[in-house]
Amino acid sequence: METLKKALIVNTIFSSISGIIMIILHTQIANLFGVQNNSVFWIIGIVLLYFAGTIWYETKKQRRSAILWISIQDFLWVLGSLYLLLFNPFDITQIGNIIIGVIGVIVLSMGINQIIALRKMDCT
Question: Whole-model pTM?
Fold first, then answer.
């Protein structure tokens, strides 16, 4: 299996699992994060499932612009995570911040791997 397809499949799986967990465990996650409003977690979960579907579609099509847009969205997630970690506008707990940081690093690595694989595809 080619590198780009592998990178996209990893992102699809991670986004799907994350989305499902956020939908099913939104109340528990809100408690971990120390926030009252748990609806944001199931909403993000639904968006992640939609995102995973678009990534899965691109494992078949592998259109350069669409994969670049997927990677940009990954990088925007990382920037949003950095904002949350630096400014903590919602008074998120320490464990919540650790979770945000770990997920941010994973998402960053997926975005980088996709860009590297996309560049290699262009060279061949």
Answer: 0.94
